[in-house]
Amino acid sequence: MDEVHEPLFVRACRGEPVERTPIWVMRQAGRYLPEYRDVRAQTDFLGLCKTPELAAEVTFQPIRRYGLDAAIIFSDILVPVEAMGIPLDYQPGPVLGKTVQSMSDVDALRIPDPVSDMGFVMDAVRTFVSGMPQTPLIGFAGAPFTLAAYMIEGGGSRHYAETKRFLYDQPKVARALLSKLARTVADHLIAQAEAGCSALQLFDSWAGYLSRDDYLSFALPFTIEIVEVVKAAKPDVPFIVFPKGAAACFPELASIGADVLGVDWLFPLDEVDRRTEGKVVLQGNLDPCVLFGPKENIERQVQRILNEALHIKGHVFNLGHGILPQTDPEHMGALVESVKRLGVRRVPADLQ
Ligand code: CP3
User: Fold this and answer.
1) Domains in the chain, please, with CATH?
2) Does the beta carbon of 156 sit less than 6 angstroms from any atom of ligand 1?
3) What is the pTM of this model?
4) Pocket residue to mutate for ligand 1, from 77, 79, 188, 189, most atoms within 8 A of Cβ
5) For the residues of 212-257, what is the DSSP string, one character each?
6) Ligand 1: which atom is nearest the Cα of residue 146?
7) pLDDT tens, position by position, 4-28
8) Residue 3: per-residue pLDDT
């Protein structure tokens, strides 16, 4: 009877029976919400991340407003990068105070202790879990390739040209950097699970800028290392990997030991399921811009995605990337309402 007490979202991540498709949304706490903008007006973005009561408060906000099936702790993928010794600012996109260009720059990076150097994240996790114990909380980190891209470019980038130049000109230095990031990220994820997170997600937001060959060479091995280390320490905590744009590598990604594969909106879920041979639960995959259009179209597209997911191993509804700041909060409400009304009861094939 134990599983009756496990939340819907956690059971869906494991491919277990669910009474309805669960939903949460990447970047669900953020600037599209007026209550977020009110809290944010009190401090800058990093101040918000580093004040556990405020970080927990903005994590609660979308749960209170929409009754989502999971929360994601309010932080940023670049928090560990700052803890490694790179000054960080947001304007509003991230701006790094130094870039990594050589082996001596890699050697100078610290491997942070998650509890003493990023304890504010774990404090925010504990504050959330004690305030909303019924809602599963997702901890997260950026994948090594995406974090390395910020460290090499010094911020966001249009083409990631400097990052690619670095991979091709200095592959040994690149691997040393990616390896240091993998250790940092694995430690950070384990610490979030110890503090009370019920699931973990790895964001490889810029994976889609790499060719299949370069992804297999510079990104996948470090993602595998993280999944192995985290799963060895926390075997029961569902692991979601979100390699945005990396559909070319889905067959390989289905076999790395992650429970859930996050999918962007380019391919229908039934096709992704065929390419991953039903090995993983899929999360996604509504285009965030659909929320800009009329509610009837939001509902129609929700129904389409649920239909496409009907026979896959398991499904967690989400957008294919983060919700955009221009989104009307009412349209996010229409999305959640549609998934809750139309979401399907699911009994995995091997239990039928
Ligand atoms: O609900 C949540 O998901 C909130 C937690 C969260 C944030 N960032 C808050 C945030 C999460 C999970 C992230 C992850 C993150 N951060 C990613 C991976 C997800 C993705 O979208 O691919 C990336 C690439 C970053 C780096 C980053 N942080 C960028 C590019 C920006 C600027 C974004 C923008 O829209 O201007 C940030 C800042 C940031 N992180 C904001 C929020 C709410 C906006 C900052 C503000 O309030 O001014």
Assistant:
1) 29-67+71-197+199-237 (3.20.20.210)
2) yes
3) 0.97
4) 77
5) HHHIIIIIHHHHHHHHHHHHHH-TTS-EEEEETT-GGGHHHHTTSS
6) 24
7) 579 999 999 999 999 999 999 999 9
8) 45
